[in-house]
Amino acid sequence: MCGIAGILHTDGAPVSADALATMLAALAHRGPDGSGTSVRGALGLGHRRLAIIDPAGGRQPLTSMDGAIEAVVNGEIYNYRELTAELSAKGHRFATRCDSEVVVHAYAEWGDAGLERLRGMYALAIADHRRGRLLLARDPFGIKPLHWLRQGTRVAFASELQALRTVPGLDWRLDRTAIDQYLQLQYIPAPRTAFQDVSKLEPGERVAFAFAGGAMERRRHLPPAFAPEGDRPLAAWLEEAAATLDESVRAHLVSDVPFGAFLSGGVDSSLVVGAMARALGRPVRTFSIGFADAHGAIDAVHDETRHAEAVARRWGTEHQMELVTPASFSVLPELVRHHGEPFGDSSAVPTDAVARLARRSVAMVLSGDGADELFAGYDSYRDWWRWLRGDGVPPLR
Fold first, then answer.
1. Of 309, 317, 316, nearest to 265 (Cα)?
2. Where are the beta strands (DSSP E) in 49-153?
3. Which pTM was predicted?
């Protein structure tokens, strides 16, 4: 998890290096391994780094050999090795082993279309000094966050809202429609945020601003559409899903630093841990949390540690567990600050607890997040499916 930030003055006024440094200070928790900035007149780019690949290299902002293209990237590009080989054959010279460097070269070779060649989770900003253009982009599934605003002649962007709030002279007014959405959904969907004039990039969205005058372009690059393949035996579908999961997990395991996995004991994380164990051929470091009251008595209704421990034994993992108690909720003010706007998912507290546990021994983890969305695991998805078939009234949210 890295953090990126930047400011563009479309009237040509110089960017304050101090203002950019203040934005990065608000993102320090996202990147403990280093900080970098580039200020060229009316444009400033900044990066806080969590080093996963090539810790000794990979300092950002990244720059093309001729200095015409700069980029700051949060995330990981899983097919960077294949793209590096292809671009090297075309004459590109890479200065590091860092996966993020491929973004600069892909853009230099293919322009905006180069982003569609990336496989990974990312939020990024590219400054094209030859064309006089700032490009912001987010991965097609929206895994990594990016917020941006435009007021007057100033454009600013950051991984978190709290970094944007450090920019002086901006007007922060609540967006009543966004608050209404939160009361219905318990979160505020992109592109809105809780504040007027402040937006989240949507999944797959690209927003570009001209250096001079700030003319704006917006486009979306969506994931490939799923096409029906006809009837197949259930066993064939399961075999293909298992092979796809194994391949995806292997792609996620490229790292120069220690890594592990969150393990709740549920189907999702258990499948991921199993795939990791098969790919690595050695014990996986796994982390889970249990629930207890203030006196240490286990909450039998919500606690799943027995299931997690059973999976850990099955795969021979190096397993660690910690209990979440009422005292764990003391982190709420910090979590509210990081979210920057209302967020109603109570799992934020236990997720914070297991992340703190894991961070004591690893720098990266895999998890089962997203499986319920992909495989319609929640009852609400089945409710909507029944409604779409005409079998009932849509659920109120």
1. 309
2. 62-63, 69-77, 120-128, 133-138, 147-151
3. 0.91
Per-residue pLDDT at 210 exceeds 60: yes
Please state the φ and ψ torsions of residue 209, each to the nearest 5 degrees.
Answer: -130, 135
Amino acid 325 reads T
Q: Provide φ and ψ at 63, rounded to 5°.
A: -135, 140
Q: What are phi and psi of 339, to 5 degrees?
A: -70, -35
pLDDT for 7 beyond 90: yes
Q: Which amino acid is at 347?
A: S
- DSSP-derived letter for residue 283 is P
**Distance between CA atoms of residues 108 and 125, nearest Å:** 14
- Compute the distance between CA of residue 273 and CA of residue 315 in angstroms, rounded to an integer: 8
What's phi and psi for 73, nearest 5 deg?
Answer: -135, 135
The total number of residues shown for the chain amounts to 397
Residues annotated as part of the active site: 2
Query: Mean pLDDT across the stretch 233-242?
Result: 92
pLDDT score of 394 = 58
pLDDT at 223: 74
Tokens of 299: 């909450």
Domains of the chain, earliest start first: 3-220 (3.60.20.10), 234-366 (3.40.50.620)
